[in-house]
Design brief:
Elements: H1 5-11, H2 13-27, E1 38-42, H3 45-59, E2 65-69, E3 81-86, H4 92-100, E4 105-109, H5 115-119, E5 122-125, H6 138-150, H7 156-166, H8 174-178, E6 181-186, H9 189-205, E7 208-213, H10 214-217, E8 229-234, H11 241-246, E9 251-253, H12 259-276
Parallel strand pairs: 1-2, 1-3, 3-4, 4-5, 6-7, 6-8, 8-9
Helix pairs in contact: 2-6, 2-7, 3-6, 3-9, 7-12, 9-12
């Protein structure tokens, strides 16, 4: 199996998470303050990190927090602060949203001299978490680690678990590698991590993947569960869920891991399965590192 940029970037995550935690005292004043009403924006993976942070911030009692895909942001809604997440700083929808914002904007990006950083009132540049692969791993999880740390959640437990996974701990059963369909579920902020896991595996392997909040899973999606398929639970399962899934014959992945560490297992699985099929995990088909749209009215 050849080494990919994605594989190396996945392996950098524990160190990058520690670096993000060390940056917190320097950038804390640029992040949402307790009681502020906040909108968090992103696209793709960054949108899921925004949704995870929004759920975590509200659960911590830090203030009302809404997450939006940048292209769906209701710009006329009143907020005290807008947080935009964009690895490249060039994604069209994010740059447009920053330009339309009336509240102060803090952008989290990996590129200091990007349009998003230039357009925002404040920029937190995590250039040590930049990456070559089109498929996001290290930047997204490092950004969420910083945001979790700003809410008082330590980075060390997740980093230690992730390093253990990289070293071979918490291996997955063989049925997972052989599966032909994956469903990821989670509750609270873990629902956003489930969405990111489904996206990651879909991008790299072209497999059929889905994601749902835990309590929604039994409202229809469980009907596709059967032998040869996987249901992967992030966080603590609701009572009865594991029993109901096991009754279908599907393989259940349900381990006591921090969801970000568990996401590393999905990232590694994606690279492994992609390479097994001869796919390039760094450059999935039809994708680019940043989505830059043509100006309105331009000829396609």
């Amino acid at each position: 199996m050849t080494t990919s940029h994605a594989g190396r970037e996945i392996a950098r995550q524990p160190l990058a998470w520690a670096q993000a935690r060390e940056r917190l005292p320097e950038v804390a004043g640029l992040l949402p303050q307790p009681g502020e009403r906040v909108a968090v924006l992103g696209c793709g993976t960054s949108w899921f990190m925004a949704a995870a942070y929004a759920a975590l911030r509200e659960a911590a009692g830090a203030g009302e927090t809404d997450a939006f895909a940048a292209g769906q942001w209701p710009a006329g809604r009143a907020y005290d602060r807008v947080v935009a997440i964009t690895r490249s700083g060039t994604t069209t929808e994010v740059v447009r949203a920053i330009g339309a914002a009336e509240a102060p904007v803090t952008v989290l990006t990996a590129v200091a001299d990007s349009p998003a950083a230039a357009g925002a009132g404040a920029a937190i540049v995590l250039d040590f978490a930049d990456e070559v692969s089109v498929v996001q791993t290290v930047f997204a999880t490092t950004t969420l680690t910083l945001l979790r740390a700003s809410l008082g959640q330590p980075a060390e437990p997740a980093a230690a678990q992730a390093q253990g996974i990289l070293d071979g701990a918490n291996s997955l059963p063989p049925a997972v590698d052989a599966a032909r369909q994956f469903t990821f579920v989670g509750a609270g902020w873990c629902a956003a991590i489930a969405s990111e896991a489904a996206l990651k595996l879909r991008e790299t392997t072209r497999l059929w993947t889905e994601s749902y909040p835990q309590l929604e899973y039994r409202h229809g999606p469980i009907s596709i569960a059967e032998p040869g398929r996987v249901v992967w639970i992030f966080g603590e399962p609701v009572p009865g869920l594991v029993r109901d899934i096991e009754a279908t014959g599907a393989t259940v992945v349900n381990d006591d891991l921090d969801p970000l560490a568990d996401l590393v297992r999905v990232q590694l699985l994606g690279v492994r399965l992609a390479q097994r099929q001869g796919f390039d995990p760094d450059q999935p088909r039809h994708l680019t590192r940043s989505v830059i749209l043509a100006p309105a009215g331009a000829t396609p």
